[in-house]
Amino acid sequence: GLFVYQVSPHDESPTWLAQCTTPVVPLSAEAAQEGFGRSDLRTAYFDCTSSWLYPNGAESPGWYALYRDTARSDDAFIRARLAESTPSYEQREARALPPFAIYEQVSPPALPRFTPDAPIRIGHLTFLGYTGADPLPVEPGRTVEIETWWRVDSLPERPLSIMLHLAGPGSTPVVVGDGLGVPIESWQIGDVIVQRHALPLPADAPPGEYTPATGVYWLDTMERWKVGGTQAGDQLTLPSLVVTAARN
User: DSSP secondary-structure letter at 138?
Assistant: First the structure.
């Protein structure tokens, strides 16, 4: 066999395999079935450099498969996600398969740092909260990272994107960090998606308060989804951050 993974005992058997597609998908369907000895695993795909997928919110155990160099990178986003799981197998050299690593997730992730008083429904998704955008001052030229957390409540049939816009003094949009690293073909109801938004501030960004706003829109028409709850409209405003004056 290509690899054989010995399943550790759990109250519940793993039900899914989520594979990071960057730079390559580690396991073919045949290799996964042979290695895990299972043909009933749900398989999902995502770009772990821009998003993270928790199938069914990780309410049931499952496995992640990543290209070995990706799993061992210094990327803080990837390292934080993998810190919640357990390394299970590592192939260090290219053989029939590229070097890859397998991690086991046995419990749901910790909640995002900031959560709304009540989940906010936006179209097919529910906004669960966010991390990042600390109130500490940020210098021009730095990159601000914000992670938005979403739960899949129903399945869309058209391509979409998750927006994160940063507006500066005077409400002028300064930086756009839209994206979605989990293709809708991999979605199932109950999944939790963490979207990473990188916001590089211009070197000449004027000092003042900058307001992040998130939401969702269709890629084909650019039409934004309506926000439910108390924040009516087509975007959610997050707490502001402060940009200091540039150093001379």
Answer: B
Q: What stretches of the chain adopt beta strand conformation (E)? A: 16-20, 42-46, 51-54, 62-67, 86-91, 100-105, 120-122, 125-132, 143-152, 160-167, 173-176, 192-200, 208-218, 236-237, 241-243
Q: Whole-model pTM?
A: 0.92
| Bridge partners, residue 52, by sequence | 194
Q: Are 53 and 25 in contact (CB under 8 A)?
A: no
Token digits of residue 146: 């914000």
Distance of CA 46 to the CA centre of its chain: 9
Q: How far out from the chain centre does Cα 30 lie? A: 27
The encoded tokens of residue 212 equal 């992040």
134-190: pLDDT as tens digits = 666 889 999 999 999 999 999 999 999 999 999 998 877 789 999 999 999 999 999
Instruction: Kindly list the distances between the CA atom of residue 34 and the CA atoms of 4, 29, 91, 107, 225, in Å, as whole numbers in the listed order.
Output: 8, 9, 15, 25, 42
